[in-house]
Amino acid sequence: MSTITLGQYLFERLHQLKVDSVFGVPGDFNLRLLDDIDEVPGMRWIGNANELNAAYAADGYSRVKGLGALVTTFGVGELSALNGIAGAYAEHVGLIHIVGVPAVSSQQKQLLLHHTLGNGDFSVFYRMSKEISHASSFLKDAASGPSEIDRLLRDAYIYQKPVYLGLPANLVTAPVERSLLDTPIDLELQPNNQEVESDFIEDILKMIKDAKNPVILVDACATRHSVKLETKQLIEATKFPVFVTPMGKGAVDENNPRFGGVYVGSLSNPDVGQAVESADLVLSVGGLLSDFNTGSFSYSYKTKNIVEFHSDYCKIRSAVYPGLQMKFVLQKLLKLVGAAAKGYTPVPVPSVKLINTPAPQGTLLNQQWLWTKVSSFFREGDIVITETGTSAFGIVQSRFPKNTTGISQVLWGSIGYTGGSVLGAVLAAQEVDPTKRVILFIGDGSLQLTVQEISTMCKWGQTPYLFVLNNNGYTIERLIHGMNAEYNAIQPWNHLDLLKFFNAKKSESIRVSTTGEVDQLFADPAFNKNDKIRLIEVMLPMQDAPINLVRQAQLSEKTNSSA
Amino acid sequence: MSTITLGQYLFERLHQLKVDSVFGVPGDFNLRLLDDIDEVPGMRWIGNANELNAAYAADGYSRVKGLGALVTTFGVGELSALNGIAGAYAEHVGLIHIVGVPAVSSQQKQLLLHHTLGNGDFSVFYRMSKEISHASSFLKDAASGPSEIDRLLRDAYIYQKPVYLGLPANLVTAPVERSLLDTPIDLELQPNNQEVESDFIEDILKMIKDAKNPVILVDACATRHSVKLETKQLIEATKFPVFVTPMGKGAVDENNPRFGGVYVGSLSNPDVGQAVESADLVLSVGGLLSDFNTGSFSYSYKTKNIVEFHSDYCKIRSAVYPGLQMKFVLQKLLKLVGAAAKGYTPVPVPSVKLINTPAPQGTLLNQQWLWTKVSSFFREGDIVITETGTSAFGIVQSRFPKNTTGISQVLWGSIGYTGGSVLGAVLAAQEVDPTKRVILFIGDGSLQLTVQEISTMCKWGQTPYLFVLNNNGYTIERLIHGMNAEYNAIQPWNHLDLLKFFNAKKSESIRVSTTGEVDQLFADPAFNKNDKIRLIEVMLPMQDAPINLVRQAQLSEKTNSSA
User: Fold this and answer.
1) Which of A66, A87, A166, A413 is catalytic?
2) Contact B32/A487, CB-based, under 8 Å?
3) What is B367-561's CATH number, 3.40.50.970, 3.40.630.30, 3.90.950.10, 2.60.120.280?
4) Of A450, A422, A443, A431, nearest to A537 (Cα)?
5) B527 vs A123: CA distance, rounded Å
6) pLDDT tens digits for A320-335?
7) Is domain B3-182 annotated with CATH 3.40.50.970?
8) Where does pyruvate 1 bind (chains A, B) (predicted)?
């Protein structure tokens, strides 16, 4: 009987699920575990600059490849990662947080080890993580290891949520039967209750048949729970106009003639707002209705006919169908919807305008111009990452080419997130298709939280585009409260020295201040080829912001001060 | 009746407790609160680069001034700080974590706000923080605000532990009677039970009278629970030899003729080990017996006569006296101990040797030489901060001048900690005595976790000495496991460009590789004056470490792999 270590078993399972980059920081309770990564051909240990960044990176990797993994050490390491884990929980991102914990014998003796609170409580950090994990396990023996690992990985993948594994240092080398790997982890969804599913589909088919002016609205969970294909087919089969939310951007081909733009409640472009709100049926796929995703809950469909498709339930108006999974529902619906929608006469859809008013070459940049312009730089297959703040709001104005992946943390909204997630995305892109370009837009304020992860990209010779929007501090906060307050200012950095400081091998650092400079840059074929790491400092006015952010900020300030 | 806002009340109370610098990061649920800092003359908002660093900074500030404060925002901000809060919990550091949370009305409506998990649960982060807080409060109304704030601040101060305050955005501006400020927060300890105290003192006086060869052993909590003065008087009154633990370094004047060195169990210098372990009575003040503080629990007193003085209990051999607070016990003991100890004949104590074997000027640096040498650079009143790793172990070999403050996170041991805490310490030093020098020793690996906080020191024009020990990666981890493993390597940075990148106004960056260069630097009067921010890159061999660390690492590896 051939055996491997429990540590190797874990990484073999991850490899089977196409997780080939493992993020994290070494620490004395996980060092032996890290040795086992090298035992699995094709796996690599990335080694982050700190644990929060590692969590963000695992999240970014998962958004491209479907699952991510990070390894931290007991107490100090795992707690540093929690904000990133909670973000994955909020935004439906599947990942496993593997924590190297003290040996079982040390725990039993309640030793006053370093990295403990000094009170002999070894489960306190596990309890904290449980609050933001879909499933968790704190191993006590090696025998249960393989089944627990399989359970956690299945849950992380299926539910697209973080899971937690506490792995005692002494169990890492315990022998496990290699043949267990021959049975793949079951990643299939349980079938829906057929009767409930049939009832539900019957009802919506009737609504579709009756609708004169239906629309499809696609949100984040369409991507996260893998129904992009079904959604595409639904659009093709029905010809209904399709819109996305800010978090749904990238879920739908924006060059599809039926694509009408981004719907953000009262913050939408007027023609988009009109189109969605006058619909007599809304088919909402993978909705995540947070404030920043809806213009502070300002959705105002005049119709009461709303059908919601979610990963673990569906809904018609107020009626909930618990447990009904949208994937199967959509697949079944696709077989029948063509006939139901055949009476529908396609209406014209709003079109995204991408033309800036002509301006002299020396005109100073502003947000409005920039976000209209960037679409001309994007190309098929790009991964576009936008930081919370002006970037995440500005990108709504752009048009993505076919097969563009959009990454943004709109619901959780932790500033600095993209500084870590860009690393995960760029490594995932390298594994999926090395010609894929990864393009980050981050503000100068957010950059400061996680800047050291750019060093990790230098270490790995990655070649992302890093657009640093320099507007002299936290502009999103200024708009919400304290426009000129000292607390919204930051220490100004010499951004053009950053890549040199981090010792990048092949790099380029450029500052652009005018429309002419950006025009020239985007027109340069050399610049368009992602053959080196690039930092582009974009100089923007301090108080300038995309109009949707200005209006969102006013709504937020109001909510915060309401009694 | 004159009123102020609840926010101002909070900062006025902090100001009364001499907390004049508030750390943190702005976020939309705390912006209005930050306005109130300016209402209190003498208070300043520091504004950190990220929240973990802010927590570390508040911890460093507290270790100098007795209490610290940080402000974060709901969810994203507060979770990022947790590792720093847990460290303060483990190491007995008093601070208040103030979290700006959504308005009460938003919570009641369970709005799907950004910075939430998207499930309407607004108390989840509060529950997580409770696990690592001595006391906590999640305000629901303004009326209870002042008394809750007073309770939390009292607890943080008295127990020297972190406390948590969740402050809804809409309550910040609620009116509070100004006259409440006229009654100071009661910071007095409750008196001890007099009968228990008398019994305890009677017993130890007898032990002291009988002892031929007693010693005093001083640990971290002597500093944290403010019995440094009583300890000093105890040494003077008894003439007993006194030793410190690694975490106790700085608690005792090392130039006192009765000071014998640092005791770390089996990792001690042989003469120190011999002196402590042959004692027939050990008076242990403020002990915190973690693995790294004791040479992996290798304390081996031959005597069974151990008396322990703690902040909330005392102990004679195995007998615990719950609730007995050492401060009062020591004060009472001091009145009687002189008579009891008058039969004691002082024995010679080990002396700290600080002479390096003479070497040619061009000799490359090593850890042994460096840690013997640094004592010559220290001067009275310095604050010396050493990062977990070679620095925290190496500093044990040095001698501190009078009134030196030592800061190191030996029990919690989170790498990167000092990168944040040095900021807190230097700002506190500025408030206490601007001529005080703050000296940091940090490894190149640890620096990467929290490097951006150096930018905050540049923003505030602070002038610390930053010694960056460049030994090409995580040497402490290499010694524990994986000496040449890729996972213990890091991206090499151009450290000499760091201060320029962060836009420091007045700075100096120097690299030293030889003993001659260090000799010259320390002998230079200009270098000794802290009139600018300085980064000194110290080049050291990759596998070189202080001998106590080498031996500790072997012990740790053994514990980790034991079944």
Assistant:
1) A413
2) no
3) 3.40.50.970
4) A443
5) 48
6) 999 999 999 999 999 9
7) yes
8) 28, 115, 477
